[in-house]
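ugh ok fine here u go
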Amino acid sequence: MSGLLLKPGFGAIAPTTVRDRCPNWSFVGFELITLSPGETLARDTGDTEHLLVIVTGKMRAWAAGADQGSLGARMDIHSREHAWALYVPNASNWAVEAETDLELAICAAPGHGRHGVRIVAPDGAPMEARGTGANTRYVNAICMEERDWADSLLVTEVWTPNGNWSSYPSHKHDTDAFPEETYLEETYYHRINPPTGFGIQRVYNDDRSLDETMAISDGDVVLVPEGYHPCAALYGHDLYYLNVMAGPRRNWRFRNDPDHDWVFQRDSAT
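structure:
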């Protein structure tokens, strides 16, 4: 099995636990927790900021000593509803109690104490469509750089219809060369509908010293320490993924694979 592919039950993905797979990993942490109604979970954030993304379900939340109320609404990840989320800065704490069956993603990155607790609620805006034809996918930018209430985290979720490609044209963000490109580590948390299907993801760099192609199943996580990273949904099976990115700058700037950039140029002109 690929060293970049993690199966369900992997536990926390944090800088201290992925360096054996990605020796230079130092920014992104990710964990997927499932709770039954009435079960609780509490954490201190330490030196990292946390974004708690409610993948499915509802929960009661407390953060920084304050009751944040009941959060969440989406019960089916494939309904293309925007996620609820809760941002908690570093040097703080949070606790949740599941009100229904709950799938909770804990996204972490270095925090610098510049922001306070924030509830991210769906605003009713339509889902953003990107790409054309078999490259069409639908995006909810939960915590991208235009939302200035986080220190390091960049988080988004994407729905790719069956048979379509995503994160394509192939692009990378592994070089600290702002404003042309930024260094960002990234994780992909994948869900498949129906769950008996699979998708494909390739991670490769320019000189092919890294070149791995993986069959991704429901609940898998793919680590992207460097390189290009397109993925595709099997015909008859929709693909959802939650991306977490972070690096020394909170900007998403990428470079397309020169062999595939013509697709981007063509689609941009339409």
